[in-house]
Amino acid sequence: MDDPDHPAQTEAQDQIARLIGIMAALRDPETGCPWDIEQDFASIAPYTIEEAHEVVDAIDRKAWDELPGELGDLLLQVVFHAQMADEAGMFDFATVARAIADKLVDRHPHVFGTESRDKSAEQQVKDWEAIKAQERAAKAEKGVLDGVALGLPALTRAIKLQNRAARVGFDWPGPEDVIAKIAEESAELVEARDTLGPDALEEEFGDLMFVMANLARHLKIDPEQALRAANAKFTRRFRAIEASLAKDGRRPEDSDLAEMDALWDAAKAAERAG
């Protein structure tokens, strides 16, 4: 798998070594950057999440010229965490790279082992889950939901929790049952709004969102992607409202809801016609 004579691989190895060296210099207690020196795992974690989202944003926008920079920013987060761990005597970047390389080899016996590649994608997914179950058992994770990271975005974690429960049969038979549950949860939300306090209202709203995530799973829709697309659509159409008003030298605050609704409908019709 390694080919040190391959120019691209050699360049990649050189640049990773350079990046690790730069990070070590930034963290040097005597000559490094004060800001970098002050950071710890907790303070850097939000940046790690932010950079991952910016990678996704570049992909969604098909901003391929921006993607290398965004991936570099995300790689920096890995190097930053590894450097702090190295300083604490916990692990280093090589340990991180080795861990993921070993995991990929172990989880693809049909590529790196003796298993046949002649099986469906569905069977490969089942095999993958079986291997992950063995890994969880080795970590003494005995519960069905053990190992689903708390730090995941709530919508993503909801899907993962539901998938885990579904594997042991705790699931609705089909989307119709989930839609019926959505109607039930919607009614409970209205009741909470009218008769209960803010804590109960928030709880019922959370229940409704959880069931909506389950519907997405049954319909084989990625709810994160669906919501990102809805956000992008809202942004396009609202900007169309702003552009229409700007032709008259006005801004949204100079308009009213009825006019903006009409401009929204016009933007919607233009999108569908185009």
Keyword list:
single chain; 274 residues; mainly alpha; Helix Hairpins; 3 domains; 73% helix; globular
Describe the structure.
Keywords: Hydrolase, Plasmid. Residues 39-112, 175-237 form the NTP pyrophosphohydrolase MazG-like domain. It comes from Paracoccus albicereus. One of its GO terms (molecular function) is nucleoside triphosphate diphosphatase activity. This is Nucleoside triphosphate pyrophosphohydrolase. The chain is mostly helical and 274 residues long. It has three domains: 7-107, Helix Hairpins, CATH 1.10.287; 143-221, MazG-like (Helix Hairpins), CATH 1.10.287; 225-273, no CATH class. Helix content is 73%, strand content 0%. It has helices at 7-26, 34-38, 41-60, 67-87, 93-107, 109-112, 121-138, 154-167, 175-195, 198-218, 223-246, 257-273. Helix 1 (7-26) packs across helix 4, helix 3 runs antiparallel to helix 4 (67-87) and helix 11 (223-246) crosses helix 12 (257-273). The mean pLDDT is 91.
How would you summarize what this structure contains?
The chain is mostly helical and 274 residues long. It has helices at 7-26, 34-38, 41-60, 67-87, 93-107, 109-112, 121-138, 154-167, 175-195, 198-218, 223-246, 257-273.
